[in-house]
Backbone:
């Protein structure tokens, strides 16, 4: 029986709970394995005036030090542009950048050696904020523009107009397993690399580049990752490259697993953004025009910032029809870590702007924010259901989901109850909010939307399944096993899912953009179809049937649809196929059809489809401290025809909580010298179980099969992250209530993340405004009804 | 009396350690011997990925499995003890805790999972499976809901298996140890007099109890320790006395024992212990350690300041007592002299003369409610007479100065005042300017000032003071 659509546990779950699941650094140590330790820059920007490693190599157990001179190929790990120096020689570009790495027999020896490396610097003035970068000016790229209609004229004509700005915080990935790579060289000039990477192919290419050897000399294998979230897409490359250089120099195996502090200091994070907007709208709260500028803090090198910025610009609309819109974007170059992919990939930073705007419109007009959001939804056909970049939203499910979650959450009744609670309580206030998500699925760059697989059937009927995707906890391997088992009509136990490796499936794309199951699932199915057609011919001969297409593969049997008694075991057919000299291995391949993007005009159909969801959150805010308690969450999510509801539910819950962390407690603090002050879990706080409410429901949208996607399913990795906007908006709703009963604010500015401090400051603003509201213009006094 | 080796039991097998550093962390050791199920997520005791269970004495003296962070534990501290790691939990088939996590989808990437398993394992045999039992375990994938559902599956179980049998046979008494390597000495004594003797010979020895603070230095290799003296097994430091007059807490009593044994005695202590780090740390951390490190952001000092605890201190030359307010001398400096050891903390239960009731509570504000370092912590004691007038006031704070401090001028100003909102409002104004806190990564000086004042009003309101709309009292 097929397990498609079943709540099947993670394929490695037993390995996880017993500790038997092997991660990169858990493998048996090869003889002579060396370890690495970095020497970090104490300046955000400085000229290197002296480098002396002579004392370091005298330390017991230190083998050597690797530096720029040791790089046989290019001293550069940039992926889009070659602007990412691996070992800086002239200038350091961010605080904590690694200058050289000490190679030791043990990590302790390498660490003691690193203490002896002498580096002298001439400090230079760093650029540390987006505002500084604008003033400098210091940018990575030219301004990007996407435009629809005539925002200038329509803004002028708008009944209401508001201007505003929003500082959007970054976020550390805080995967539990830090970056790690093992590189094992052989005497023939080949390198076997084990890397915790979401993109083995890219890691392979970059290692080959720094070593100056062809790609075929490097095999990169990813066993599994202890979390990725985008943080191991490009950020794995420098780690693997340093280990490869050390392996090249010493001829010995080298491991590099970053300490938690080093991981947080060295690696890129979610981009901080700065958004400025002018919006025009009607008395009903319908947006008529919007002008937005988005600045992304790219950090010191460009990394993946261009596509991150583009996704922010393409998601500035979220689920809302904006008839006249211009969004401009630019990437600031600062002396900080090079910011990178993180779940949502710029989408959250675009969407937070429009959600802030919609709340502000609602409060300006004294309308319920949920109504204003509803009124602006994409709807109908044609223009009102088309995005600002010209993509027709063929399968618009926003309203359906919105109504479903409102009903599940008894939104209207609770709205009343909360208003009553707030009237009765002076010191604590509750807030309620509902927000939608529409998220485009596909890599923006069309060429990445391809995938491959390799299936090997052995003569005993056991099977190895390879595909190009990596497992970081998202359940991709579990889903691929389900797809393969169904496609091939065999039980799932026949398969061994192989570690992702570049010598099995070449030229793969990153496991990213929520696309892992969509792309690799189709590639796996394709290989299964190839094998099935070969085996069907063998089985037909065995069963003395004329038409192999009549054969059904199911539950380890192959039988004739019209004469089910004519049947043969899968493994017998496999043996026969071998005897008949029929190949028992096949590759599979897939490319997403019907997508295109014109970067010049900013128009196209970049997304194969959209994922939709909505969430209702309720919070209680303490008026003395600004702390909040999340009381209830209800979510409805469209995952198509779920391949695995257990896995999908886990993605939705986990994504939501990670988003809540970003928006409410995860604060990256850099001091005025550009030093990151939050580089450990003692200073950088992600949610714990105690922040999770008892009442937390997730419903998968029913009757939601998606045409053209593997077994009708839809992507689920990133979309739920942005459901956490409902928490931010609920906190804002509660803050507004601190003005009651005398004062209803027309604007509730709220910093992000909405830490207790930010929230208390916002409350104080409301309280102060309430006291003086009689003299303020533009705010309304409520009659004491 | 020196030993050439340390022994410990890991998953039922006895191991002998020769010439291995007693300050190596248990986590490093486990991974070195190939027990790679236990993971390092941070090396800070903040993520719980390295959680293992140790057979230890519970608050009622019973043997139980106790979760702890192996990244913070020096090997010397677990000498003679029995450790269970994630590899030792399944026995032919999955343990019920493991089976529940598999079934409910409690693991995604799986890297935090061994730590969750061990926290749940310990709670399973304590029959205390709830959110608190895993609050010290971070998971970045699941959002915790599936883990909570797994925990609920096993929360009602009444285990009877090989692990309960093993507990029944456990020996809990920690013996004296003297373990000397080429460059390190590790001592564990059972008598205070032995400790004081040792300190005469090694005045610069590092004292350690639960090692949750020192373990950070070890885990990050920030410190080389030549001589370490463990106080964990010292009988005199493990006493907890609760009479009608006073409470006396031995310096080496783990916080989780204080939580259990003194529940309901001092509301402000109950409250603060609830927010003190997480389960794994409370199982090891001690009151003596929390005072000895003298951190300005320690959680217990404000509570002890408000309750006017006395610190008993011993040395080879005798014993003395010092008021807690005089104990903190400066940033990370205490009144403790070389050769001295904190013996206990004594708290009186008496109300001030003339008082008929006492109001007391504590508060901790962090970026995250659970397992965070405070931005500001506060503890208040107010004694009221029959006319609802204040006859005694103690307002103590952490996070606002170089040491934990009391607002002494404000306390004096409160004497004789009525316990009313008007008094509170006046006090809030005084409190706001009472301290000059710093801005740091946790919060701004302004926010800290607001909290200093607001928390006192919160206290008033929560103690049943007349509620009044904040807008009406500007």
Residues:
């Amino acid at each position: 029986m097929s397990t498609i659509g079943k709540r099947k546990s993670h394929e490695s779950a037993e390995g996880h709970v017993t500790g038997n699941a092997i991660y990169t650094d858990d493998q048996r140590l090869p003889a002579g394995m060396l370890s690495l330790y970095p020497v970090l820059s104490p300046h955000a920007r400085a000229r290197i005036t002296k480098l002396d490693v002579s004392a370091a190599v005298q330390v017991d157990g230190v083998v050597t030090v690797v530096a720029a001179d040791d790089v046989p190929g290019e001293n550069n790990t940039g992926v889009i542009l070659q602007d990412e120096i691996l070992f800086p020689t002239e200038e350091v570009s961010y605080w904590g950048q690694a200058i050289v790495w000490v190679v030791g027999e043990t990590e302790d020896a390498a660490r003691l050696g690193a203490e002896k490396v002498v580096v002298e610097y001439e400090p230079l003035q760093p650029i540390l904020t987006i505002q500084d970068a604008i003033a400098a000016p210091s940018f990575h790229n030219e301004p990007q523009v996407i435009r629809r209609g005539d925002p200038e004229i329509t803004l002028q004509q708008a009944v209401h107009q508001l201007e505003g700005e929003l500082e959007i915080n970054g976020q550390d990935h805080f995967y539990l397993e830090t970056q790690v790579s093992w590189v094992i060289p052989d005497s023939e000039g080949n390198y076997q690399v084990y890397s915790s990477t979401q993109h083995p192919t890219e890691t392979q290419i970059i290692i080959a580049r720094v070593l100056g050897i062809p790609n075929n000399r490097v095999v990169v294998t990813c066993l599994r990752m202890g979390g990725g979230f985008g943080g191991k897409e490009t950020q794995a490359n420098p780690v693997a490259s340093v280990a490869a250089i050390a392996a090249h120099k010493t001829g010995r195996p080298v491991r590099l697993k970053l300490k938690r502090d080093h991981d947080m200091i060295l690696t890129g994070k979610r981009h901080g953004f700065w958004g400025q907007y002018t919006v025009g709208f009607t008395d009903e709260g319908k947006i008529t025009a919007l002008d937005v500028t988005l600045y992304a803090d790219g950090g010191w090198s460009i990394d993946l910032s261009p596509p991150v910025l583009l996704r922010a610009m393409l998601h500035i609309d979220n689920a809302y029809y904006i008839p006249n819109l211009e969004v401009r974007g630019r990437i600031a170059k600062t002396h900080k870590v090079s910011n990178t992919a993180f779940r949502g990939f710029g989408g959250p930073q675009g969407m937070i702007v429009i959600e802030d705007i919609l709340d502000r419109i609602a409060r300006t007009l004294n309308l319920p924010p949920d109504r204003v959001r509803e009124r602006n939804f994409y709807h109908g056909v044609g223009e009102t259901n088309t995005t600002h970049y010209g993509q027709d939203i063929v399968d618009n499910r926003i309203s359906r989901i919105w109504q479903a979650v409102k009903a599940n959450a008894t939104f209207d009744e609770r709205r009343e109850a909360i208003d009553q609670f707030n009237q009765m309580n002076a010191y604590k206030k509750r807030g309620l909010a509902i927000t939608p998500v529409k998220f485009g699925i596909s890599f923006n760059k069309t060429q990445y939307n391809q995938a491959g697989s390799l299936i090997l059937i052995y003569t005993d009927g056991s099977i190895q399944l390879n595909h190009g995707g990596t497992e970081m906890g998202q359940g991709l391997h579990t889903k691929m096993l389900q797809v393969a088992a169904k496609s091939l009509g065999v039980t799932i136990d026949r398969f061994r899912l192989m570690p992702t490796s570049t010598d099995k499936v070449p030229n793969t794309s990153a496991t990213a953009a929520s696309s892992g199951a969509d792309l690799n699932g189709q590639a796996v199915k394709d290989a299964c179809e190839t094998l099935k057609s070969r085996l069907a011919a063998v089985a037909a001969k065995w069963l003395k049937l004329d038409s192999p297409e009549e054969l059904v593969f199911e539950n380890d049997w192959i039988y004739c649809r019209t004469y089910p008694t004519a049947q043969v075991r899968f493994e017998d057919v496999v043996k026969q196929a071998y005897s008949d000299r029929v190949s028992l291995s096949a590759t599979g391949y897939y490319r997403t059809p019907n997508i295109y993007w014109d970067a010049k005009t900013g128009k196209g159909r970049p997304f194969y489809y959209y994922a939709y969801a909505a969430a209702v959150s309720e919070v209680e805010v303490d008026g003395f401290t600004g702390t909040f308690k999340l009381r209830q969450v209800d979510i409805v999510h469209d995952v198509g025809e779920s391949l695995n509801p257990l896995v999908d539910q886990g993605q939705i819950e986990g994504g939501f909580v990670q988003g809540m962390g970003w928006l409410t407690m995860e604060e990256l603090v850099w001091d005025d010298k550009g030093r990151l002050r939050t580089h450990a879990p003692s200073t950088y706080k992600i949610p714990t179980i105690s922040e999770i409410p008892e009442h937390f429901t997730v419903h998968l949208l029913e009757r939601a099969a998606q045409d053209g996607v593997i077994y009708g399913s839809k992507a689920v990795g990133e979309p739920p992250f942005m459901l956490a906007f409902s928490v931010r908006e609920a906190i804002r709703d509660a803050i507004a209530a601190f003005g009651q009963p005398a004062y209803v604010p027309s604007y509730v500015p709220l910093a992000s993340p909405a830490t207790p401090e930010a929230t208390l400051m916002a409350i104080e603003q409301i309280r102060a405004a309430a006291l003086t509201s009689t003299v303020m213009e533009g705010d309304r006094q409520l009659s004491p009804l | 009396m020196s030993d050439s080796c340390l022994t410990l039991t890991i998953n039922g097998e006895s191991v002998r350690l020769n010439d291995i550093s007693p300050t190596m962390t248990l986590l490093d050791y486990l991974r070195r011997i190939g027990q790679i199920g236990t993971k390092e997520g941070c090396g800070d005791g903040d993520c719980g990925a390295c959680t293992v269970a140790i057979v230890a004495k519970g608050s009622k003296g019973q043997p139980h499995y106790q979760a702890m962070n192996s990244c913070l534990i020096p090997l010397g501290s677990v000498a003679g003890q029995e450790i269970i790691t994630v590899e030792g939990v399944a026995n032919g088939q999955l343990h019920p805790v493991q089976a529940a996590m598999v079934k409910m989808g409690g693991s995604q990437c799986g890297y935090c999972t061994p730590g969750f398993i061990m926290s749940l394992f310990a709670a399973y045999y304590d029959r205390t499976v709830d959110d608190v039992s895993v609050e010290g375990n971070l998971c970045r994938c699941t959002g915790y809901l599936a883990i909570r559902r797994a925990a609920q599956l096993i929360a009602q179980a009444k285990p009877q298996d090989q692990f309960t049998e093993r507990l029944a046979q456990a020996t809990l008494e920690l013996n004296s140890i003297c373990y000397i390597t080429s460059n390190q000495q590790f001592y564990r004594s059972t008598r205070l007099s032995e400790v004081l003797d040792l300190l005469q010979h090694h005045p610069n020895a590092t004292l350690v109890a639960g090692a949750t603070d020192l373990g950070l230095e070890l885990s990050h290799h920030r410190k080389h320790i030549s001589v370490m003296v463990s106080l964990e097994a010292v009988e005199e430091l493990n006493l907890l006395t609760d009479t009608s007059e006073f409470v006396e807490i031995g310096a080496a009593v783990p916080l989780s024992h204080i939580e259990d044994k003194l529940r309901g005695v001092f509301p402000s202590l109950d409250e603060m212990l609830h927010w003190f780090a997480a389960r794994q740390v409370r199982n090891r951390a001690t009151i003596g350690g929390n005072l000895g490190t003298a951190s300005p952001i320690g959680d217990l000092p404000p509570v002890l300041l408000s309750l006017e605890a006395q610190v008993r201190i011993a040395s080879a030359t005798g014993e003395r007592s010092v008021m807690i307010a005089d104990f903190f001398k400066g940033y990370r400096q205490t009144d403790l002299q070389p050769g001295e050891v904190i013996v206990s903390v004594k708290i009186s239960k008496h109300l001030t003369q003339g008082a008929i009731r006492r109001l007391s509570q504590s508060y901790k504000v962090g970026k995250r409610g659970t397992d965070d370092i405070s931005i500001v912590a506060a503890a208040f004691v107010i004694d009221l007479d029959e006319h609802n007038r204040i006859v005694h006031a103690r307002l103590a704070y952490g996070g606002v100065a170089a040491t934990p401090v009391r607002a002494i001028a404000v306390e004096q100003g409160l004497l004789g005042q009525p316990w009313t909102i008007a008094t509170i409002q006046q006090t809030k104004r005084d409190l706001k300017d009472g301290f000059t806190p710093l801005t740091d990564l946790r919060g701004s000086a302004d926010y800290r000032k607001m909290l200093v004042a607001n928390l006192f009003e919160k206290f008033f309101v929560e103690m049943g003071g007349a509620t009044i709309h904040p807008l009406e009292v500007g």
Notes: The radius of gyration of chain A is 28 Å. The first strand of chain A starts at residue 34 and ends at 40.
